[in-house]
Amino acid sequence: MSLEIIPTGAPVAAEIRGVDLSQPIGDNVFALIERAYDEHGVIFFRDQHVTPPQQVAFTRRFGDIEFNIFGERWSVAGSPEIVVVSNITEDGKPIGVKRAGENWHSDMCYTARPPRGTMLYAIEIPTLHGLTLGDTEFASAAAAWDALPDSLRHRIEGRRAIFDFSGRKRAFPPSQSEIERNPPVHHPIVRTHPHTGRKCLYAMRDDCTGIDGLEQDEAESLIAALADHIVKPAHIYRHQWRPGDLLMWDNCTVQHRAIQDYDMPQRRLMHRTTMGGAVPA
Fold first, then answer.
1. Is 281 part of a structural domain of the chain?
2. What is the pLDDT at residue 172?
3. Which of 121, 218, 235, 251 allows an S-S link to 271, with CB 3.0 to 4.6 Å?
4. Do residues 44 and 15 touch, judged by C-beta distance below 8 A?
């Protein structure tokens, strides 16, 4: 079966068929996958059967592994590069991050070099009465920029927002050492994708705490307006997970959130890897 790239019809996301990620992938095929990833912002492969080392190896094709802070608490034995995302408990203790990413965000935007992208491999998906739960929504920050009026583009282009790790409301409050390792950083509100050259909005309610050169009230109002604009329904793709899905997204092109519409006894288990990025420009 030859490789097929099937766009979803939404502003982001395409399914890729004809690839078995448990097998070695030649450079020519990988180049097509990477091009689709850059172009569509989200790509996914159905019906995969990959081991943790295979997922890590595939992630490394896109860049060095970025170690997430949650990996210090919840990682896969023998594969510390993988963070466990799960609501399952064993012996009264969670085996993974339970309520990860329920608000709109871009992964690790509070770091000086936010990751290029994130990969999730679905092992168990919650279901109820035959319906799958726990979807993930992705909003195109590139389509959001394209839809801005010129007056607002001129107002924000060249400005930088303050991203503060300690300012976000989190399911698991960060430790003092985690806060100290992640001091506030300043990133452009309008990012340029390093491979496609597309401009993308980079503003989030929870992570952006100010804008350079603006009074706090004005900055907060502008951040809220941009954040709401990014996640308009016209910019969104909603992914319905299946066991065996391997999905990856670009943290410049899209923002995302996990839909928390399930709880035990519905089980969710995923393996997450993150690839290193660069200083936003």
1. no
2. 57
3. 121
4. yes
Would you please indicate which residues are annotated as catalytic (active-site) residues? 105, 107, 256, 272
Give this prediction's pTM. Answer: 0.92
> 163-176: per-residue pLDDT in tens?
987 765 555 566 66
**Structure tokens of 156?**
């924000």
Which residue positions in the chain have pLDDT lower than 70?
1, 68-72, 167-176, 178
Q: Which two tokens stand for residue 81?
A: 């590069």
Within a domain: 280: no
The enclosing domain of 210 has a CATH number of: 3.60.130.10
Q: Annotate the chain with three-state secondary structure.
A: CCCEEEECCCCCCEEEECCCCCCCCCHHHHHHHHHHHHHHCEEEECCCCCCHHHHHHHHHCCCCECCCHHHHCCEECCEEEEEEEECCEECCEECCECCCCCCCECCCCCCCCCCCEEEEEEEECCEECCEECCCEEEEEHHHHHHCCCHHHHHHHCCCEEEECHHHCCCCCCCCHHHHHHCCCEEEECEEECCCCCCEEECCCCCCEEEECCCCHHHHHHHHHHHHHHHCCHHHEEEECCCCCCEEEEECCCEEEEECCCCCCCCCCEEEEEEECCCCCC
Supply the pLDDT for residue 70: 62
Nearest to 227 by CA among 144, 171, 126: 144
- What is the maximum alpha-carbon separation in the chain? 57
Task: Please check whether residue 107 lies inside any domain of the structure.
Answer: yes
For the sheet with 246-250, list strands across it: 4-7, 14-17, 42-45, 246-250, 117-124, 269-275, 79-86, 75-76
Q: What is the pLDDT of residues 135-165, one digit of tens each?
A: 999 999 999 999 999 999 999 999 999 998 7
Range of the domain at 266: 4-275
Predicted local confidence at residue 182, as pLDDT: 74
